[in-house]
Design a protein that fits this description.
Number of strands: 9
Number of domains: 3
Helix content: 40-55%
Structural class: alpha+beta
Protein name: Thermophilic desulfurizing enzyme family protein
Organism: Sordaria macrospora
CATH architecture of the largest domain: Up-down Bundle
Number of helices: 13
Keywords: Flavoprotein, Oxidoreductase
GO molecular function: 3-methylbutanoyl-CoA dehydrogenase activity; flavin adenine dinucleotide binding
Largest sheet: 7 strands, mixed
Radius of gyration: 23 Å
CATH superfamily of the largest domain: Butyryl-CoA Dehydrogenase, subunit A, domain 3
Order of helices and strands: HHHHHHHEEEEEEEEEHHHHHH
Distance between the termini: 34 Å
CATH topology of the largest domain: Butyryl-CoA Dehydrogenase, subunit A, domain 3
Length: 454
Amino acid sequence: MASSATIQSSVHPTSDPSIYQEYESKWSILPADSANWLQRAKDVAAVLAPDAAAREKANKTPRAQVALLKHSGLLKILGPKEYGGGEQPWSMAYQAIREVAKGDGSIGMLLGYHLLWAFSVSILGSPSQIAKWTKLITSQNLFVGGAVNPRDSDLVITSDPSDKTKIIFNGGKHFTTGAAVSDLIVLEGALSPESFPESGPGGAHIFAYVPTTHPGISFSFNWDAIGLRLTESGSAQISNVSVDWEDALGWDATTKSPLENVLGIPYATLLLPTIQLVFTNFYLGITQAALDAAAGYTRKSTRPWPYLSGGERETVAPAEKATDEFYILSTYGTHHAHLLAATALVDRANEAVSELFAAYNQKKGSRAELTAQQRGEVSELIAAAKIVVTDVGLKVTSDVFEVTGSRATASKVGLDRFWRDLRTHTLHDPVAYKRREVGRYVLLGEIPTPTWYT
């Protein structure tokens, strides 16, 4: 399959993949166990961190960083060993996302979205589709992006008038994280009521993988948010992209209808809590990196305040070093404690998701046995984790300036990018609705009705 590296940005310059060429051979052997996979993610973060702030300012399309992820093997951490993957649980994949986000929030986000879209077929697909796409994505080390925003039916699917075995996607998507630098893109569209009146007024949705180099796919390269600037999350236009019915995930190519034993079960809705936990883990990685970066700056550069508030009545001399300042020590201690608690909650959610996928999967033939209650309880645990990490993260990434000083606001220091990255994505879906959702679960015992954001 042709690489999407042939697609050139019309707005931003592109980073050069050759700058990371040495890691193709250095990391040519996949890690053997969980501890080494975690170390590989930390190694990637160590490569990314030193120039993360400078790269963000340069704002180049991150083809080099995607190449680095490919060299690392992290793109196939979840893939079956029979196809050359790591066959690690989601709990390890989540930790890898978090670690990479410590080095660069944008690249951690790209890794997280890729893993979700690459795994989507295992949630939404039929057994034959799972075998086909999992093998292709894993064995060829493909990077997967997405043109998915089900909130808007802005990508319409019609029947191919000349070939009833195909459907055609037309329209656009406002957000397409990672798609412009991908090898495969997940298209999500709604069936046209005119072409498919039986689908109802809302139009059923279909997900399908398509090569990013398809001539009908073009990107605007117009991502210009305050944070996560290297995710290429701008818009895309889709024109007459033809897809075989056989590749409509979870649909019967003969009857042109959803497979009830695939899409009509609670398991198929796991896509949403799974990606919500992707978000939560890279939020956590960004927050941890912010506190670490601030601490390093405080040790090296922050000056103690030379005055005390009590005047002549004061019996204690000003601190000689910033690391002796009471309020600085108190702030770091508080944030560290809160991050430890947040991490424990996120890790608990990570394990819960892994346990679900281990117990209910296509290999065991038990996907249909997952109950709505089980799905709902895990979803509420993830919602709680997202609430806590969002609150702690926004507080920490803002407070780092209180403990570093005015000189730390210099552009070259780059402490502001942590807050900007976190603030940008925590608006993805209102956390207020997560609070209400968890509240109904606590007070009324209600699990949430699955939606595109729950």
